Amino acid sequence: MQIQKKISMSPPFVSLEFFPPKKKDDWPSFLETAMRLKQLNPLFVSVTYGAGGSTQDNTLEICERLIRECDFEVMPHLTGVAADTEKINGFLDALQSLGIDNVLALRGDRPAGMTTPDEELFSTYPYASDLVRYVRQKCPQIGIGVAAFPEAHAESESIAGDLQVMQQKMEAGANFGITQLYFDNRVYFDYVQRLRDMGVTIPIIPGVLPIRNLASLRFILDLCNARVPGQLINAVMRADEKGGNKAVYEVGVNYARQQVRDLLANGAPGVHLYTLNKADMCLEVMEGLY
Q: Does the active-site annotation cover 119?
């Protein structure tokens, strides 16, 4: 079923993001994690797709296993970077053969180490809206999700310009958005209101990533332009000094629980957890919240 239809029929929900393990030796433990998270009854799960399609086959096979073994509604990621129409068509055809009804359409980032000029990397699908438009034309029946950036994409010249990009994605055929991780819910609610004022009516699902340890916080800061509130940084640093990873883990769980509780209480349609293929923290964050 198209995810936008499931959203309209559901009370506040949780959805999950997984990434395909690169080594097939790691697949059994990954599927065990997925089975543990089944108790959250996720509305859907998304599965990432390496830049330039570097893990395309793994994405499709993991999706098939998650459908067959966990009975999940799956939504694979699809990136336009370094992709041509033939490759996109092959991926979309494979989704239809697997009975998959949704895709997350992304422009994608430059693959690490690739020196190809931007005009070649992004020649076919320069923007996410171009990929959305193509997918909508080729597969009118499919549900299309897109990335949303409450604090603006790192390459955006302004927040206003980034909001217009989101509007263009909807006009191209997107059915819902999932936000990049962030840590201040005021940012999310302000972002959604600004989109509504522009006439962007599709659901915007907030993405939440619990901080697991100090190393994960540093990884987050390197990965994206999400702003971490000073109060949270101080709490993590104090916890690390006093109790190391275990203490930081507790801070991360408590903060994410507060974040999720506030989101659901104030009208967010649901929450999308970035699992990092870990079950324990996600289960603790969501316990008793919905």
A: no
Of 17, 61, 157, 241, which one is the catalytic site residue?
17
Cα 136 to the chain's mean position, in Å? Answer: 20
pLDDT for residue 216:
81
Whole domain around residue 120: which residue ranges?
Answer: 3-286
The DSSP code sequence of 234-267 is HHHHHHHHHHHHHHHHHHHHHHHHHHHHHHHHTT
Number of domains in the chain: 1
Return all residues near 285 (Cβ < 8 A) that are at least 6 apart. 208, 210, 253, 256, 257, 260, 273
pLDDT for 51? 47
Which of 20-34, 51-65, 80-94 has the lowest average pLDDT?
51-65
Say which CATH number the domain at 244 has: 3.20.20.220
